[in-house]
Amino acid sequence: MQSILETADWWVLGSYLAALIAVAVWVVLQKNKNTEDYFLAGRNVGWFVIGASIFASNIGSEHVVGLAGTGAESGMPMAHYELHAWIVLLLGWLFLPFYFRSKVFTMPEFLEKRFDSRSRWFLSVFSLVGYVITKVSVTIYAGGIVVSELLGIPFWYGAIGIVLFTGVYTVIGGMKAVIYTETLQTVILIVGSLIITYLGLQEVGGWSALRDAAGSAHFNMWRPISDPDFPWTGMLFGGTIVGVWYWCTDQYIVQRTLAANNIKIGRRGAIFGAYLKLLPIFIFLLPGIIAFALSQQGVLTYEKSDEVFPVLVKTLLPVGLKGLVAGGLMAALMSSLASVFNSCSTIFTMDIYKKLKPKTHEKRLVNIGKLATTIVVILGIIWIPIMNKIGGGVLYQYLQSVQSYIAPPITAVFLLGIIWKRVNSKAAIFTLFFGLIVAAVRILAEIYQTHLTGLALTFATINFAHMAIFMFIFSIITCITVSLATNPPNYATIQGLSFGTLREQDKVVNKQSISTIDIALSVLLLIVVISVLCYFTG
């Protein structure tokens, strides 16, 4: 295997890595005084950095590799997930004020304050397992593909090497190192990917030529309800359920906004992150469609959809620019890994270890957080061989299918817990366990579907996005039924954590955090999302 990079590319890539190391060293020299410094960057981060960090955390190499691959294979349907930018607004306007009032480090900690310790324990363990089977393993797998293709080294060398590089600055620098390096990585990633899109469009002959070569099916986001892979009902409604879980309740994303000094800064960071979230359609999904068109024209070839983006880099980019895009791909990989490492260590340390040993000294808690990362990485690597059996072997579809099974009960509990004060702790834990059982059965059924018949086979083959809708409906019904059948919560203990329990000072703070510019930008983003949905109709 030979590297596609030449001398000038290595200089560009080396310069990027040097800049990344310089940022990490600068952060490390500032030192972390306590857990608030290490896990939430001292709660003193600006909106621009928060927005860039949200984007960089979300856009990992699984997006670059997987989304481009899905674009080549299936076209635009997966754009529904990238238009979840509007859900990021929901984080800033609906959820964030409640999180800030609770003064929590983690989402499981919020569940304990809203419900009880059982919900906190459940979400802590569930989140760590979920990170291993989705974020960690997928990111390492995609990173191995990227690094091996670009640098000409074996898959496992590339995967493990980049994990070790990222792990060092994440473990030492904590959230500050993660959030500031992600700002740099966002710039590199966007610039590199825009270059690929621009050169790809030139090569294929422009936008009209691309539409002609790829065909109308590749530009249609709205597939029939009967479509086995991307029914519009599943993409629109099932995707939204997964989106609320991911963008509004997942530690991986929410932790960035909690690093703000106040609600206004956190919300503005979320709004900026929402605008950045629109970009993947044009810098990752569109290049996949370009690759399909170029393969139709005989310009390039690829064997697997997950090879599409590296093949584009090889085929389209001149010397020097290959190094820049290689840096962008590395940035995507490292930013996602750094984020998940930090989130895992935060949850394990603050929600599990500190819960068991509440008198532990701050410095020891920081060290425990560093240790937790290593275990998560090892488990993620072990899970990789199982991934190809789920989601048809297409990386991005694997990620969305697994998330579609774990998201609905968590979305139901958080959403109902905030908008309806009557939801109690019994309803929350019952709903969470119900969802866990159904998700586990579905994943096992999908892995072993070749051995199933009848009703069991039907259950195993229901479209993953439709499965999310069914699970969410059942979760909502379960949560409401159990709440009404049992005693209401003690409203005095959940003041400020749910609508109906807000105090006058909470309402004043909320009002003061709202600005006209934030409202205008939010409305504009909604208009853009609706316009894109209307344009890509085949």
What is the CATH T-level topology? Answer: Sodium/glucose cotransporter
Measured by DSSP, the beta-strand proportion falls in under 5%
Annotation field: number of helices: 23
Query: Globular, elongated, flat, extended or rod-shaped: what is the shape?
Result: globular
Could you tell me the mean pLDDT? Answer: 83
Question: What does this protein structure show overall?
Answer:
The protein is an all-alpha fold. It has one domain (7-387): Sodium/glucose cotransporter, CATH 1.20.1730. Helices cover 77% and strands 0% of the residues. It has helices spanning 7-30, 35-40, 47-58, 61-74, 79-82, 85-102, 107-114, 117-151, 155-204, 207-214, 232-248, 251-258, 263-277, 280-296, 308-316, 321-356, 362-387, 395-419, 425-447, 454-461, 464-485, 504-513, 516-535. The mean pLDDT is 83.
List keywords for this structure.
23 helices; mainly alpha; 538 residues; Sodium/glucose cotransporter; globular
Task: Give the arrangement of secondary structure elements.
Elements: H1 7-30, H2 35-40, H3 47-58, H4 61-74, H5 79-82, H6 85-102, H7 107-114, H8 117-151, H9 155-204, H10 207-214, H11 232-248, H12 251-258, H13 263-277, H14 280-296, H15 308-316, H16 321-356, H17 362-387, H18 395-419, H19 425-447, H20 454-461, H21 464-485, H22 504-513, H23 516-535
Summarize this structure briefly:
By secondary structure, the chain is mostly helical. It is 77% helix and 0% strand.
